[in-house]
Amino acid sequence: MRFSPSLLDDIKAKLPVSEVVRRRVKLIKSGREWKGLSPFNAEKTPSFFVNDQKMAWFDFSSGKNGNIFDFLMETEGLSFPEAVERLAADAGLALPKFSPEAEAQEKKRASLHDVLELAASYFAAELNGRSGAVARSYLSQRGLSSALQSQFRLGYALPEKYALRDHLAGKGVSSEAMIEAGLLIHGEDIAVPYDRFRDRIMFPICDRSGRVIAFGGRALAKDVSAKYLNSPETALFHKGAVLYNHHLARKAAHESGAVIVVEGYVDAIAMTSAGFGATVAPLGTALTPDQTELLWKMAEEPILCFDGDRAGRKAAYRAIDMALPLIGPGRSLRFALLPEGQDPDDLVRSGGSGAMADILARALPLAELIWVRETESGNFATPERRAQLERRLGEIAREIKEETLRRYYQADFKARLRQLFDRGSERGFERRRQGANGGLGSKFSPRRGAERAGEASSPLRAPPFVSPNLARSPLLRPDKAALPPREALILLLLLNHPGLIERHIEAIAEIEFSSLEARSLRDALLNLSAVNEASMDEAKLRAGAEAAGFAGILTKLGSLAAHASHWCVKAEAAETDAEEVLKQALTLHHRARALHRELQSAELALGMEASEANLGRLKDIQEQLLALGGTEAAVEGFGASSGRLGGPL
Predict the structure, then answer these.
(1) Does residue 490 sit in the same domain as residue 639?
(2) Do 614 and 504 belong together in one domain?
(3) Where are the beta strands (DSSP E) in 128-273?
(4) Residues in contact with 550: Cβ distance below 8 Å, sequence separation at least 6, in sequence order
(5) Is the N end or the C end of the chain the one with fewer CB atoms within 10 Å?
(6) With contact defined as beta carbons under 8 Å apart, do 420 and 390 qualify?
(7) How confident is the model over 2-47, as pLDDT tens digits?
């Protein structure tokens, strides 16, 4: 009886060798392998080893080795078909009925591999030809050398509608085969099927054996609806069960005992080039249970390295919920959250492999990130809120199916709650809440999230990563200056029109407020909006900010709003009008901060060399600041009444 290679691969992928072997051999962990006494010879010292990454077992006492099918055949005397039938049942896979149709289907799968291989070679040739100049330039700008392009078999799809179709047709490939391989777009209303990928940089997606099974395409044009486009589901390609770079990362993961998960193709390639070869990526979607099972076959605690923005944090939280029912001893996750606004490619290019290694070394355990997520609001001053937190942690622990691990998580959460809540009186809660105001907005920093909850010294704590640029930023330098007019305007617009926060969240998070008070309130508004996305209104936002200890600045802003001449700062103004003023205020703010930095640089240059050129540059910047001040007064509408606020532009 003949079994298809794809069926045998699926069975081996579903059943780790150690799981099959330990039914007959008592195994103990030994580094990245398992060891035990030989099932073939009597011995006192273990000489039998199992390697799940290699999908193989080795018995040095008898010289035997093999895969899971060989093990059943050797230990139970089964025939190969019997071993396949037994293990397919264990893996929950139905054996196909052998027929001419099934054999034809398997041949079709093999032919699809051939079609996709031809397509990959064609795309690679186009990238390296005359038509690929723009694509090569883009890749070079992203730091992907020609050697990396070759290693990952990158390619380029021409803009023409039938370029790939005509090329493959010339090789004898039918349109039907191209459609089944996901290379052509077709339909009842499409008279002639045409190329799915056009004017895109092509990333071949391979199975764990290195065979091309699909493609991801990155658009070069800026006006396309989908920047990244993947192949559709096919007989070979199931997006939720595949990891990009899996075939290359397997060996590196076996050697290092670790595997890293990033969000995109370029991130995976950049990490590999920086020396982190055991890096993979999901295919544009949230991590799935099938992908997580693949990760656990490579390492016990894969590190999920997400972008340092709000979307990256949400992706990490989704991974928590997905993984909880699946974790167990030797099956968990760690999380490395990058500095705000950076992805792995950015960090590797700006800080090198050392900066990335530092981030990975600080990866948070799963239990730690759960605690950060559940305590990031930082407000547990009432018995009701403390009870709600305890109940929520209990619900999370019950998601863990493995009984022993579930008990340990329950004990861990109880210990953390005691440390948080047993610190003393209500006054202690109030003091910690007031002291957390400045950290409320550090929503991208897991350390600060836990500090807000009162846990300042957990042994699992990872210190925050602060880049040199951020360390020099006014964001990390205390500033006791009074609230400047423009910063007051921006805060009033956000308070009275909460819908603007979600639409401009990135721009708002990046503002360099000179006032510590303004920074703290801005951060709190971002956090409150994130927690209450769908139901946030002006009253709820103000109530949340007041509960977080911002009553003083809210009173000050309310007084300013009462005297402001600009209608749009008021809550009854149309949000579209308020949005226009916010956009102008943000633009003016960024320009003013940039001019002040240039002014400091010009003053320094003039002090070092009193030349006409340096003096002229200084005067030019001063004139620009004066002009900007006039424009700003017209936009903000605070006028003379706001002069008492003081503070720099």
Answers:
(1) yes
(2) yes
(3) 155-157, 184-185, 194-195, 200-206, 212-219, 228-230, 260-261
(4) 437, 520, 521, 524
(5) N
(6) no
(7) 677 778 888 988 888 998 998 889 998 887 789 999 999 888 889 9
Residue 15 DSSP class:
S
Alpha helices in 171-264 (DSSP H): 175-180, 246-256
Mean pLDDT lowest among 20-29, 174-183, 482-491, 632-641: 632-641
Question: Quick one: 418 and 533 in the same domain?
Answer: no
167-183 confidence digits (pLDDT tens): 999 999 999 999 999 99
Which residue(s) pair with 364 in the sheet? Answer: 335
CATH number for the domain harbouring residue 631: 1.10.860
Distances (CA, A) of 112 to 108, 168, 173, 196, 567: 6, 12, 10, 16, 64
When divided into structural domains, the chain yields a total of 5
How far the first Cα of the chain sits from its last, in Å, is: 81
pLDDT in tens, 378-402: 778 889 999 999 999 999 999 999 9
* Integer CA distances (angstroms), 535 to 382, 516, 573, 647, in order: 22, 28, 20, 35
User: How many Å apart are CA 35 and CA 48, to the nearest integer?
Assistant: 6
Residue whose token pair is 């948080």:
420
Q: Per-residue pLDDT tens for 217-252?
A: 999 988 887 889 999 999 899 999 999 999 999 888
Q: Which two tokens stand for residue 255?
A: 């050697």
Residue 528 confidence class, pLDDT cut points 50, 70, 90: confident
Buried b (16+ CB within 10 A) or exposed e, 170-193: eeebeeebbbbbbbbeeeeeeeeb
Judge whether residue 532 has pLDDT over 50: yes
* Structure-block tokens of residue 24: 């007959």
Does residue 329 surpass a pLDDT of 60? Answer: yes
- Give the containing element (helix H, strand E) for 10: helix 5-14
**pTM over the 0.70 mark:** no
How is the chain split among helix, strand and coil, in percent rounded to 5? 55, 10, 35
Are 498 and 641 members of one domain? yes
Query: In the structure encoding, which two tokens stand for residue 268, read together?
Result: 């995976």
Q: Are residues 253 and 229 both part of a single domain? A: no
> Does the structure show a pLDDT above 70 at 479?
no
Based on the fold, state whether residues 339 and 375 are members of the same structural domain: no
Q: What is the mean pLDDT of residues 87-106?
A: 71
- Crossing angle of helices 366-375 and 383-398, in 10° steps, is 150
pLDDT at 405: 94
State which residues form the domain around 81. Answer: 5-90
Residue type, 488: A
Contact between residue 263 and residue 307 where contact means Cβ atoms under 8 Å apart = yes
Helix (H) / strand (E) containing 539: helix 538-547
| Region of residue 454 (left: phi > 0; alpha: psi -120 to 50; beta: else) | left
Where is 216: in which H helix or E strand?
strand 212-219
Q: How many Å apart are CA 354 and CA 356, to the nearest integer?
A: 5
Strand, coil or helix: 214: strand
The overall average pLDDT reported for the chain is 80
Query: Do 201 and 77 fall into the same domain?
Result: no
- Rounded to an integer, what distance in angstroms lies between the CA atom of residue 181 and that of residue 175? 10
CATH number at residue 258: 3.40.1360.10
Q: Say whether both 68 and 109 belong to one domain.
A: no
